[in-house]
Amino acid sequence: MIRDYNRSENTVNLKILILFVLLYFIGYSNEVVLNAIAYTVDNTGSPYNFYVDGFNQYAEENNINIRIKLNLLTQKNFTLSIENSATMIESLLMKKNSKYDIFFYDNSYIYRYYPYLLDLSIDIPEDHINMYDMDIFSQPVTLTTTALYSNKVLLDKYGKSIPKTWDDLLKTAKEIVENEKTLYNNELVGYNGYFPDYEQGFCSIYEFIYSFRESKESPFPELTSQTAIDALKFLKKIKEEISSEEIFMLGLEYSDQLITNGNAVFVKFYPFNSILQGDKLQYEISGLPGNKEGVSGSILVGYNVGIYNNISEDKRSSAIETIKYFSSKEFQKSLVLKKIIISGILSLYEDEDVCSNINNCEYYKDLQIIRRPIGKTDDLSKYMEMFVNYFNEYIYGDESEISILTKIDDYTKIYNIEVNTKEGLVGLIFVIIISLFLMIIVSSISLLYIKKYEDYFLFLPKHQWLMIIMGIILILLIGYTNIGKVSVLKCEIRYILLGVGYSFINLPLILKLIISFPEKNKYTVWIVKNKYLFLIFFILIEVLLDGLILIKPFAIEDVMVNKGKNFQICGVEDLMTKIMLLVVMIYRLFLMLITLLLVFIEWNNKDISIDLKLIVTCTYINLITYFVLLLFNFIIINNYISNFIMNESIIILMAFSNYVVLYAIRLIIPIIIKKDELEEIIDKIKCSNGNSFKSSENHDSYQSNNSDNNYSYKPRNSFSSSKRGSIYSKIINYHYNS
């Protein structure tokens, strides 16, 4: 009995053990493992390890089946530079199936990374995100800003206070250095400057210019403003009077030594806890001075954390939970109290509990932060390098402030042709030319209705002359779209004006040439009877083709000119749009060739010989100018003014040549042709029109035979339509016998 009981008890215990093991593995198998990746210049992984370990401990204590695995890239296991590591992170994000779920990264690369990061505002409450005043694609892990280290021992010795302005700093440092030299302390540095490399140097320059703004609320000054000029002048004065070129170039280790040894009056450096907790520290930190008291400026740098945009659905909610925990006020406060991070929640530094446990709370509360201009360019590293290179030409060379600042500004500035004289006279001159030309064209329409000049415009009906003039005006209006900032709408309007304008000019000419065709056939008869349908049909084709092209909008392309002035042009990125543009080009070329073919066929038609010569001249000009315009889409002049002048000149040439050759020259012909010859030409045109129109007055009603509506068409020469032969032979026959 006892043996059976013990055996039964052992069986129960075994079952319980097995059950616990199964439950453990079931729980473990349900655990979500999130892979995080980070890069650090040191080998400790701080603060990333604190974030990951902190969350894992929190998850374990609260029975949350989420665990983060940190993949840390350090200089020991990863030999690439910071810039190359940033590119590697970007390549990982661009993959459709990245093996990493959470990314820690330098916040200067947010504009490169945000297209691949999850929009946190969808799942995280707005008030939570607003604690940071940051973007919606990531949250700050740790921040740091520059501070002014003031040597309290020396300041107290000479009865000086911590400077509030750069002028105070200069005077104080200059006085103390000179006094210390009398005591044989020749190694004392007035101010270090801290311009060691392109990244740190950029931050120092940028925040110095920011500190010269007019008031605390003022934005970052325009780079070419007097404020920026004054800032550079004063910075050079500091270098020359209380520092040196060599000291300005020295970096982190040198600045650390200055603070450790107390061998500088003022040092600009980062508020590292390792320094601030030193036993023999004789420095007090504060915000950097400004040009005016109460105005300061410290650039913000640091690291963010974001979630991979294509994260699997089963991991998404877990990743959101980790970000919520990372960025929670409670967790951030715990890291601040441990002096591990500077939190992005600046309101924490108003917390009495925080300020009673950390030093320099006033410094954090009074910060006037400026962020690096991460939205100014796609490649911030390249921009910072350019910025510092130009700056060095000034601070260590002989370049003027405005020259250097203009070069820096030109790197990202987009130049446009404006009407205001501040930007030059080119835009104003062309606007005046176009406007005067438009006034001349519009006023000349009245000639069509003055009896004295009616005979000079018999070649076409009045409404078709109006159509041609409207086409010329539309082409001329393109010139206005080149003024001011380039936009997608302007690109589309420019394209429509060119297409419709060209159609309005060319279609009436083609219609007239068909009406004058030397042989009667079913096609010419139909067109003559349905001339309005003919015009509408081809205009609709133009509108349809234009509409298909505009389904995908034009793109604005930046033309970046090395050491020059950048500008923008209209471009096309979509493949189908490019194909449609090719189709439209072929269509317009077809109309031009049809015009030239019809002119060739009717070349010997003495009734309209002068008009034929004018049409062929106009067509060749249109052909040339149209293809020159197309050529400029592929060959871009790297000078925005020259590019504008060439485009405007071609547009004006196209409009002016059409106006003069087709319209205005008819007022000159009577002057250069004898009166008898002119009257003969007019009679021939009237006779020619009489063969096709019932009334030369309205040019619109064609002869018909009673109710059967048979069209009475009288070709000038009778070519039998039954004649067979090659098309080439027919064209030659038409040419010589028309």
UniProtKB/TrEMBL annotation:
Region of interest: Disordered: 694-722
Entry keyword Membrane: yes
Localization, UniProt: Membrane
Alphabetized SUPFAM superfamilies for the sequence: Periplasmic binding protein-like II
Membrane topology listed for this record: Multi-pass membrane protein
Transmembrane regions listed in the UniProt entry: 12-29, 425-450, 462-481, 493-511, 532-555, 575-600, 612-637, 649-669
Single GO MF descriptor: G protein-coupled receptor activity
Main localization (coarse): membrane
The G-protein coupled receptors family 3 profile domain, residue ranges: 429-662
GO cellular component: membrane
One Pfam family, short name: SBP_bac_1
Gene3D superfamilies linked: Periplasmic binding protein-like II
Extent of Low complexity compositional bias: 701-713
Keywords, ordered alphabetically: Membrane, Transmembrane, Transmembrane helix
Name of the protein: Periplasmic binding protein-like II
Source organism of this protein record: Neocallimastix californiae
